[in-house]
């Protein structure tokens, strides 16, 4: 894409937002998306690359975090369901709210899908016949393309026991991921009046292949009536997104 020096110069002249947009344009094989208004931003003109290196304080002016929000499932893959309520729709609704909350508070953030489609549809580079594997590999590839990102993957749980409810955050076997999981779990416990502890999510592909800190946020149980009502109500979706956002901001302060 760009060399480091070029990125620094471009960032100085056009701001980090434009650079992220450029990253998306060049990262199109992995199907990343930017908000509607950014799609029309003009790419940086060639003269930007001839400018000298600038202010040594520039690095400190960069935002302190870069979060990739993974809206779990999508398209043909509905995820967990109860009746005609599908996990993929809840994940996307909360993901969009979380995106807006984080970006409006100055956190550099990207959302890996902003509509109802499967990421495997974008995957032309992995020849597996398993759509599920192509979908997951597409998600992990995105986290490689957007360097230094922390991945927050949004999901909804399902249980045979309909009385089980509450949020659960799963983390990697790694300190930063565990810290992020604790921060988000704490915020969700406060919001949903639960006392769960985050868990290590060993068998989860995403947590195993993503190199950066990553967590899977199970926002509640679609199989539980109380959770389901909360997860499908836009006001509670906003509260859930707000709790996750505050957990992420706490993590950024602590790490
Ligand atoms: Zn899921």
UniProtKB/TrEMBL annotation:
<dbReference type="Pfam" id="PF01520">
    <property type="entry name" value="Amidase_3"/>
</dbReference>
<keyword id="KW-0378">Hydrolase</keyword>
<feature type="region of interest" description="Disordered">
    <location>
        <begin position="37"/>
        <end position="59"/>
    </location>
</feature>
<dbReference type="InterPro" id="IPR050695">
    <property type="entry name" value="N-acetylmuramoyl_amidase_3"/>
</dbReference>
<feature type="domain" description="MurNAc-LAA">
    <location>
        <begin position="140"/>
        <end position="249"/>
    </location>
</feature>
<protein>
    <submittedName>
        <fullName>N-acetylmuramoyl-L-alanine amidase</fullName>
    </submittedName>
</protein>
<dbReference type="InterPro" id="IPR002508">
    <property type="entry name" value="MurNAc-LAA_cat"/>
</dbReference>
